[in-house]
What does this fold into?
Amino acid sequence: MKKLITITCLMMMQAGAMAKIVLPEILSDNMVLQQQTDVCLWGKADSDKEITICPSWTNNVYRTMSDKDGKWIIKIETPSASYQTYAITLSDGEETKLSNILIGEVWFCSGQSNMEMPLRGFWDAPIEGANELIATASKWKGIRVATIGRDGQTEPVDYCRGSWKVSNPENAPEFSATGFNFAMMMNQILDIPIGIINCSWGGSTVEGWLPREIVAEYPDIDLERDIRREDGWWHYTSPTLMYNGMLHPLQNYTIKGFLWYQGEANVGKHNTYAERLRTMVELWRKEWGLGELPFYYVEIAPFNSPETNLFALLRESQFKAQSMIPNSGMISTNDLVMPYEMKNIHPKNKTDVGKRLAYMALSKTYGVRGIEAYGPVYKSMYMKDGDVYLTFDNAPEGFNRMSDMEGFEMAGEDKVFYPAEAEACGNQIKVTCENVKNPVAVRYGFRDYKPGNVANLRSLPLYPFRTDNWE
It folds into this structure.
């Protein structure tokens, strides 16, 4: 009997020594895989082990080998999007099964707190319509969200925290409000599953999402000084930490495109922002290896003071970045802040932010005809009888109002700006100011906090602008 027990224990120990496949958390039950492409699966096993993968949507069996460190990666072909749920069985001699998988469109959301901001809101900063969105979350059967945990690392790591969740009232409070509103609009129009990966960290800079070898070249950043606070804990404005601990581990996950909502943490550094954002997008596209993935982003909202303009200068840099980054586009939020939110850096209206990002993706990436993606964009100005006339792109049929246009200022050669009156003249805008007899420059929304009310006929707002280049 004693010998039998010994043999049985030995067999159990040997079985326990056989390592089961270890998958990153992002490869989990409930995930959405990008449709009609070759998606990556990856993980760890024993070294030099054959791995077999059997997706339920095909009879094909995929095989690969783990390397000497146990790492493996493989691409598998996905079908067209549908609401049918699938499973994937993986085996290295011992089976691991992923269930309740959907095939659809996957978008990667990143940035700082306004992208991170969940439906439950932040302290003293609610999300508009949150309780209804959360209460009705179960009706969105085709939406899944993966929220990546904050994890600062000084060197790139292979794994991060964050698995896929179905949409229901229990899970929805932690969903990115911007990402979820984007997903709802996309799901309604395309009628296919939408997956959102929310990889954001409040207060992070654009340099936080770049690797050491790039940031080390920036003269205004000292990596050894700037990475940690004095108490030794990570600081949300630290460079490289988010790239290393949160973004780098996800670069094997096959996606359709990027959504970005960030900029407040770079206010005061507007001279470098556009170029660094371009560098970030180029790097991300290269490391994902999926070509020129679309990059759609959000202009930072009016905030702080109607007397200062550091936020305005950052918005100007954001706008400029569109012309520097191929296959990109920026939505404006100039009209989405209430007066009482002037000192709230987290405005409540994420519904229209998500929708406008969706309009851009639907129009520019999916080619849905009839949907507008851009609001009016300043084109040129000319003088006539002491008044200024402005022309615009993206307003061929005029504007949302003929008079009572708010947000305009005018200056003469003294460079002192005064509030100005503006009215529509066909598809142009006439600007006048009794305090400026010989106008030289016009600005719109060009203050840290100066919301406007001008839009095109689709209610897409006029982008803030200035006709001058004064310091």
